[in-house]
Amino acid sequence: MTNARQIAFLALRDVHKGAYADFALDKVLQKFKLQDTDRRLVTELVYGSVRRQRTLDALIDQFAKKKSHQQPKELRTILHLGLYQLCYQERIPASAAVNTTVQLAKENGFAGLTGFVNGLLRQYIRQVEGDEEDEGEKPTSSHLPLQLPENPVERLGIVHSFPDWILQVWLEQLSVSDTEQLCEWMNQSPTIDLRINPLRCSIEEVEAVLQSADVLVRRIPHLPQALRLISNSGPIQNLPGFREGWWVVQDSSAQLVSHLLDPQPGEVVIDACAAPGGKTTHIAELMGDKGKIWACDRTASRLKKLQENAKRLNLQSIEICTGDSREFLQFQNIGDRVLLDAPCSGLGTLHRHADARWRQTPETVQELSQLQTELISHTATFVKPGGVLVYATCTLHPLENEAVITQFLANSPDWQIEPPQKDSPAFAYSTPEGWCKVWPHRQDMDGFFMVRLRKTNNSE
Ligand SMILES: C[S@@+](CC[C@H](N)C(=O)[O-])C[C@H]1O[C@@H](n2cnc3c(N)ncnc32)[C@H](O)[C@@H]1O
Predict the structure, then answer these.
(1) How confident is the model at residue 239 (pLDDT cuts 50, 70, 90)?
(2) The pTM is what?
(3) If you take atom 6 of ligand 1, which residue's CA is the nearest one?
(4) Which of 160, 277, 315, 443 satisfies CB 3.0 to 4.6 Å to 183 for a cystine?
């Protein structure tokens, strides 16, 4: 039988050939039917090794004669797996981490290099524990035996495993210690929040059925429909209330967006980038499922998921529209409210996608900023005079947020920012500029930017 580490190696090999980490993981988990504990180990090893890649490479650079990038690709992957267990997996004894990594090297074409693998990992252990090869405590990320540069960007990048450019973007907005806390937050396993469907049940009823299934939850301040799972190990679809449409999975900060839009029963709402429908279905719930919501998106497969979600939640007021929201002409001046939940670089949700920090680049951010600018200028024409547009992203990059809005307002004299009302759940997150920005390490939820704009009758 193939063991968990070999399976993790196969998935990581695909990732290093360009596959998305979640696809590569799903592929091996479907192929090899594993017990729950092995599934969890494979998942942790794959996501962890991808996430901590820069730190693990720095350790290889330090302990091997050849730099990490000069090592054969698959050997580097094997070393990542071994070092990841030594650095971050307290439950795994150091000797087990070393022996299984040596075995992986032997079985995957590096039988001649097992001495090197063994030597490098033991050198790491000696460095941490001072020449003793016992299996004592493992260090935390900031106490790894790394030789660190003075430059704060590079130092944070190596310790917390982020590319320099992302750290620069954060350091322009936050202090060094705040940035460090944000990095640590983004390296945690993501939490799961539910949004209760008030058209089907109450939050108390959901709390009760979850409690009877031994699932611990807690409420989230300011958000009337949100519950955070504190303990749950099984597949989410097996929890009570899922099939009945009592709730959906949606992070708390994403729930703030539809509250900021504040849709009313009977209105016409256009959701310009709607799929897979987290916010569309929330809007329908807030409208009591009365009125019309146009759910537009250019990705048909994602819209199919939206339809499934709407069906499960038993919502009737949603109409699908497939295509590019920069091109629709049929919505001019008909929307009481428009939501533009724009495609973005996702710098606020890096903890949910282990490889996202390595996939995005300053160039992709530039392209997204251009797309967002085009989307807002066209979808603003969907709004009736006196109506509202909410612009939202799950990124923390000013080029995709503040800069898009500032440019839009400079070109649109008939629009102005309308900060959230005191009774809005979004009020607690508003800034003096009138927009809302959720910093994950401060608010313990996904990073988000959102702003509510009102179309006035003033065109001067
Ligand atoms: C952030 S996601 C939307 C998430 C969704 N609002 C939710 O809450 O579930 C952005 C979406 O924009 C869509 N998209 C990207 N470019 C688009 C365009 N030009 N026109 C319409 N949709 C677009 C993508 O397919 C993606 O589904």
Answers:
(1) very high
(2) 0.94
(3) 274
(4) 160
Catalytic residue among 87, 183, 296, 394: 394
Q: Is the pLDDT of residue 139 over 50?
A: no
Q: Which residue among 285, 293, 298, 303 has the greatest number of ligand 1 atoms within 8 angstroms of its CB, and so is best to mutate?
A: 298
Does residue 133 surpass a pLDDT of 60? no
Express each pLDDT in 290-347 by its tens digit: 999 999 999 999 999 999 999 999 999 999 999 999 999 999 999 999 999 999 999 9
* C-alpha of residue 18 to centroid of ligand 1, in Å: 23
pLDDT category of residue 134 using cuts at 50, 70 and 90: very low
All structural domains of the chain? 4-151 (1.10.940.10), 152-187 (no CATH), 193-249 (3.30.70.1170), 252-455 (3.40.50.150)
Told to judge if 394 belongs to the known catalytic residues of this protein, a careful annotator would answer: yes
**pLDDT over 90, % of the chain:** 91
Is 273 annotated to bind ligand? yes
User: pLDDT tens digit string along 240-277?
Assistant: 999 999 999 999 999 999 999 999 999 999 999 999 99
Task: State the pLDDT confidence band at 141, using cuts at 50, 70 and 90.
Answer: low
Pocket of ligand 1 (CB under 6 A): 273-279, 296-299, 302, 324-326, 341, 343, 375
- Say if residue 447 carries a ligand binding annotation: no
HEC-encoded secondary structure of the chain: CCCHHHHHHHHHHHHHCCCCHHHHHHHHHHHCCCCHHHHHHHHHHHHHHHHCHHHHHHHHHHHCCCCHHHCCHHHHHHHHHHHHHHHHCCCCCHHHHHHHHHHHHHHCCCHHHHHHHHHHHHHHHHHHHCCCCCCCCCCCHHHCCCCCCCCHHHHHHHHHCCCHHHHHHHHCCCCHHHHHHHHHHHCCCCCCEEEECCCCCCHHHHHHHHHHCCCEEEECCCCCCEEEEEECCCCHHHCCCCCCCCEEECCHHHHHHHHHHCCCCCCEEEECCCCCCHHHHHHHHHCCCCCEEEEEECCHHHHHHHHHHHHHCCCCCEEEEECCCCCCCCCCCCEEEEEEECCCCCCCCHHHCCCHHHHCCHHHHHHHHHHHHHHHHHHHHHEEEEEEEEEEECCCCCCCCHHHHHHHHHHCCCEEECCCCCCCHHHHHECCCCCEEECHHHHCCCCEEEEEEEECCCCC
Determine the atom of ligand 1 nearest the C-alpha atom of 271: 6
pLDDT category at 132 given cuts 50, 70, 90 is: very low
Residue with CA closest to ligand 1 atom 1: 343
